[in-house]
Structure to design on (208 residues):
């Protein structure tokens, strides 16, 4: 029984290491450029061991993204918990995305288009977060940063559409993350902010 526990613990730890290494390689080089051999070599394990844990690269990518999504959600909840107001949350999220854009090769996003099942998984996860988004918007209204009388469910769909458009048109290849946010997402955000909210944005964000 002890041997079984140790084996299970070892396999779990190895899977975590594989996911961490693979996602780092995908982010740095793009998904298509990374082979299963590269992942095995980076961890000094055999390809056979790798395939015993993950059937193929798409499975590995899907599991890696699911893990990333969970960790990202936990990080977002912690930011929300520690922040004094919604504007502080938004600006911290912005900094998080800026940091991510500095380490993720744009090829990673374009290569994702070759995996429609994974894209569907990510879109479903985004749709499942609508209730949390609406709660956040209502908090902004109560704090006086967002206007009353706005259909925030529609705003949520609008942000989804903007994000989808940016990805489908690969705007991240032609513009920096700062340009995309300031000219698209933050302009939209500014539209439903109160004067109080607009002042915060104008102090912190340079609108190009």
């Amino acid at each position: 029984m002890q041997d079984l526990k140790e084996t299970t613990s070892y396999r779990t730890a190895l899977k975590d290491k594989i996911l961490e290494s693979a996602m780092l390689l995908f982010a740095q080089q793009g998904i298509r450029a990374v082979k299963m051999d590269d992942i095995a070599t980076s961890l000094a394990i055999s390809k056979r061991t790798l395939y015993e844990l993950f059937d193929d690269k798409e499975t590995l990518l899907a599991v890696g993204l699911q893990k990333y999504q969970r960790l990202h959600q936990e990080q977002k909840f912690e930011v929300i918990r520690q922040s004094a107001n919604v504007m502080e949350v938004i600006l911290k999220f912005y900094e998080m995305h800026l940091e991510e854009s500095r380490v993720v090769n744009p090829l990673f996003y374009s290569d994702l288009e070759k995996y429609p099942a994974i894209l569907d998984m990510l879109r479903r996860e985004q749709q499942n977060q609508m209730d949390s988004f609406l709660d956040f918007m209502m908090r902004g209204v109560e704090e006086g940063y967002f206007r009353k009388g706005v259909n925030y469910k529609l705003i949520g769909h609008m942000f989804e559409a903007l994000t989808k458009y940016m990805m489908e048109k690969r705007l991240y290849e032609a513009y920096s993350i700062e340009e995309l946010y300031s000219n698209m997402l933050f302009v939209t955000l500014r539209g439903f902010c109160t004067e109080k909210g607009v002042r915060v944005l104008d102090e912190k964000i340079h609108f190009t």
Q: What stands out?
A: Residues 181 and 193 are 16 Å apart (CA to CA). The longest helix spans residues 2-29.
